[in-house]
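Notes, Module 5: Reading structure tokens.

Key idea: the token line is not a picture. It is a compressed description, and you learn to read it the same way you learned to read a sequence, by spotting repeated patterns. We will look at two proteins. The first is printed below with its tokens.
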Amino acid sequence: MNEKEIIKKEMNKEENNKSFWKKLDDKTLLINIISFIIGTILFWWLFFIGIIDLMRTIFLTILNLLIIPLLYYFINNFGKSKHQKIIIKIVLVGGGGFFFGGITWFITGYLLITAPWAPLQALPPVLRGRILLLLLLTLCGIAAYIMYRIGKKRDWRPSSYYTD
């Protein structure tokens, strides 16, 4: 392959990628409605097999219904917001820190405390619970700080998807 063919293939990939996101933007409301239906079915299924109680099921169903308009508004108006930098800081530091901190907490807590071979398995349950809670707070704080440093390095610029 020569250089022109490679460039042409890459341009076609970029055009296909842009058309995919444009089609997805047109169907945002439909995606939100489908996610509501799936979430509601999941909550009620968890209720019927006995994992969660009725009050929690009703609460999650109503909460799921309230989130759809918020997500639809956020997705459609995010690129036009005057406070885009603040929103990016909150989402990146708060959401990213909680997400990555939760993942590392789950892995670390399992390997150190709850697994049968864990070194802290012999501790009393109350002490293990306190250690798990402190581990969650510290790992989420560390992950939030790392996400803050990443955002600061990028100068809090939004993704190129939102700026086109």
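Here is the second protein, with the sequence above and the tokens below, as before.
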Amino acid sequence: MNTQITLEINGYKRNVLRYEYGFNRNTDYKGRPTTGVLGGDIYVEMESDEGCEVLDMMLVDIGKPYLCFFFRSEPIPVSGKIRHNIDDMMFREIAFDEAYLYYYEKNMSAEVSFPMVTRFLISPTRLDINRTVKLDRRINTTDGGWWEEYQEEEKASILPKVVLEPPKPIVLVTSVKGKDCALPNEKVKYEVTGYNLSNVNKSDRKRVKWVLLIDGVKEYRKEQGESFELRIKEEWANKEITVMPYLQAETINVSVKTQIRTEAIVVFVNGYWNTGKSNSFAEPLKKMIAENIIGTKNKKDYWESMFINNTYNFLIKKYKQWTNKTILRSGITPLFIDGSNVWNSSGKTRFNAGWDEAEELLKTELLTHNVINDEGLQMKKIFIISHSMGGAHAEGMISAWKYHDLEIEYVLHFSAADNKDFQVNLPHVTYQINLVPDPVLMYKNTDDSAKVLWENFWNMLRRPYLDSSCAYMIEKMLPEHYIEVKNTDALNHAYTKGGTVWNLVPFLKN
């Protein structure tokens, strides 16, 4: 076992042979303590050498002059510690402070058998044993009679010097821009355009917050920054939203009000028009139909202007009746489609052509007219109006758009031709209107035997119209949505693309 005892006192360091310390209390005749803890002096013994450092510490104040005979100079204290290590591990540590050397002895001998030893006593007034037992008997902190538990002196905290800086100006948002009106599913960008300060740092610009006010309820957004992109929800249609950016607190004085409008596209799908390819049926009928019924123009010019205007008014009122929401006349966009094909084409052929055209329109006109956005989400309401051979073409378009999750609000088929070659896709919102008798439908909807022999066809025309009252109804049309009105006029087929039909059919008139 390797043992080492080291003394450090006022910077002087030596190995020690032995040390002692002890405490005691006075007792009365019954053996009970009558005083506090006394003693505590430290006895140190070490080998002598040629130096006298410890003695110098004891005598350092001897040379000081006396103030007078009765007042001697204050002795100079020492401080240090004794560290006792066993196998390089601390076994005991005695730390002393404000201590005094009051006994010194040096034992010298010429005989080798007698070691030369230096002994001295230390009288501490502050003492720590193994850093756990802390004792104090200083005059200024105790009564000085005996040892007491040491109380750590509270060091006055030195407050850092406060450097007063001028107050940082408050940054406020003063202006913002954005769209005045928008459509459902549209992405609208709002952007801060002004602050109350000319120099606004990037961190302030990045922490701009946004809040929406809808129906009196505030919605605080998680997005931050000078610009904010908002997707308009479908349920906000016909409502006004207020968008407010802020740094301290939102205010209606710094805001953008955006009206969410309900707008629509009305798709007019025309039927056959005289392209000069009508030689396949009887000459007298060809001349009458070409000159008086079919016409020679397609798309917008196929329809009478009164028909188009009445269609807009009808759909606006109907939509208001269903939803209690308003579509303004200025919010309606027409789209005119040629759904005719050749005279002898089947309804199935035109249905397939309508599907193909609808797929192309998804990439062109529907994007151009903001019917859908670049993600394919619907922004405007869709209404479909068809006439004659355009009915099958229109149903093909409806099937394609339905496949792409577009919603069709209302469908009106006027005098649909080849009614058994295609089906209605949306029976609950689809209506069919016919004026009878209709020479064109009597020809288009009959079998080939009547078309090949003029006598057979003429006999068919002599009937009021086809035998069944629902002979012209499109497959899967709801019977209550099929509207047939009698009108003894050979031009009934032409009337259903003009203004006359709106006066003849109570469903439309009312």
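Summary for the second protein:
- The first strand starts at residue 3 and ends at 9.
- The two ends are 118 Å apart (CA to CA).
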